# Entry
Amino acid sequence: MRKINQIFLLLFCFCLCIIQAAAQTNSIANETNQNSINQNILSNYEKSGVQVKQHWKLINKYSGKQLYFLYVSVKTLKEKGVKTISQAEAVPVYVETETSFEPILVENKGQYNVPVEQTVSEGGFVATKDGYIITSLRAAAPWNSGSTYVGTTIPPGIIMSSDLKKIKVVDSTPPVDWIPSHTQPQRGMVGNFGIKANFDYKNTKNETDLSVLIGRSDRPMDAKPIMSSGKEEIGLIKVDLPGELNALELNDNYDSLNKGSADNFIIKKDANGLKVMKTSVVAKGSFDWGTTIQLGNSFSETEKENKANQSLFNSGNPVFDGKGRVIGIYQSFNSSDQTHFVIPIKFGKELLN
# Structure
């Protein structure tokens, strides 16, 4: 009986070794397959990924003068009996609209006024061989984007009534939904500060300097804005070059994506260079800010604590499937729940069509 038990024990150990070996082989195969997917995605991105840089400013197309954010000195406010907690020398002045509030724009540079201009740097990718590039709206046409000035260091300001006569709010944070090109007409004296507003949004134009770096190239190329989406925060720009560019394949899989779908890959860049991060679908649908795919992440516990993680990802970059095809355009990172918002590529394809 003892010999039989020993035989059974030997057989059990032998089977266990086979199972462990098979599991290890399968694990190695999965890791090899994942490495192959990552290398394919990186190769595609390094050929067709784009860095978009644009400097733009808002000017009056008739006078040729640049437009400025109106600021008023804190000293003047205090002299007029306005109590503010601001430690700045001057604060911006806003005006009420029907649904929100927005900056007052003037042509006079003044002592404190700040020019309506900005340098924007975002991601993108070559979508067609003849030079069409899909990128974020903030890069393609920042004057049409509600996120253009979000996150900038603008001090709290005052909000005037719609007729510009009364101060309604003091120490207000900047509006988060202001779109420069949608600024409403503003005419009249601003309170009793001796400042006149005379601005009509129909009389503005945008002066831009738009350039791109494609793939591994370090040579900037001129580009021109083509159009922006009326639905999502994306836009289309174009470079004119002889020959063909390496274009990424686009795969509209939005309708087939479900919660838990795992073959989604985001490009991130840290101190060690470019990396591919595999993610799963957390949710998808239409929200107030548009239609998005919400993806989780695979940060380590140490990385989750790093508040700088949001700077590892570039709006406008492509998001891939397991075959290296673009399924979406990266939009933003939500640090509160560590998720990523992605615009489905179907909206990018609409721009191309």
